[in-house]
Write a structure and sequence with these properties.
It contains five helices and six strands, in the order ββαβααβαβαβ. By secondary structure, it is an alpha/beta fold. Helix 1 (34-47) packs parallel to helix 3 and helix 4 (107-118) runs parallel beside helix 5.
């Protein structure tokens, strides 16, 4: 398994002493890759920064579902437990943790907006790559690589760039 770590180009990149929070993100309630979760928690702990754990899901354009609050059903207990595990580990180590459920008709764009708002020092794309399509992973990686202004790490093999 190959991991990718790259510094993305941006005129407003922070220096090492001015790092922001660590953002651990997954798409569509896919559990985190073990290595990605460990990297995010360790980085937050070592840098003394908060950890933001984000689950970015697709919000289908169904107005009545949104109106009645059924736009995202609860995840099964084993999935919820897997998504909660990195946050619980970080919290037990004294790291300030924030968990977010981001719902959007365009999940990749929503993640980029979250990144712009929270200005993390490190964005960890932590979805288990075996559970998402290579096409989606390739598209998400390209968008994040081209538009995020922070250090980015992704789990898994080369997405066929």
């Amino acid at each position: 398994m190959t991991t990718q770590l790259g510094r993305l180009r941006s005129p407003d990149t922070r220096s090492r002493g001015d790092s922001g929070p660590v953002l651990l993100a997954t798409f569509f309630s896919v559990p985190f890759d073990q290595g990605a979760a460990e990297l995010a928690v360790t980085s937050a702990l070592e840098e003394g920064q908060p950890l933001i754990v984000a689950n970015v899901v697709e919000l289908p354009p169904l107005p009545m579902s949104v109106r009645f609050g059924y736009d995202h059903l609860d995840d099964p207990p084993e999935i919820e437990s897997a998504l909660r595990a990195p946050a619980e580990l970080a919290h037990s180590l004294g790291v300030h943790v924030e968990r977010l459920l981001v719902r959007s008709p365009r999940p990749v764009v929503a993640l980029l907006q979250l990144t712009a708002e929270r200005r993390p020092g490190l964005l960890v794309l932590g979805s288990d790559p075996a559970r998402l399509s290579r096409r989606f992973l390739r598209r998400a990686w390209r968008a994040v690589r081209d538009q995020a202004s922070c250090l980015v790490w992704r789990a898994g093999e080369d997405y066929g760039e």
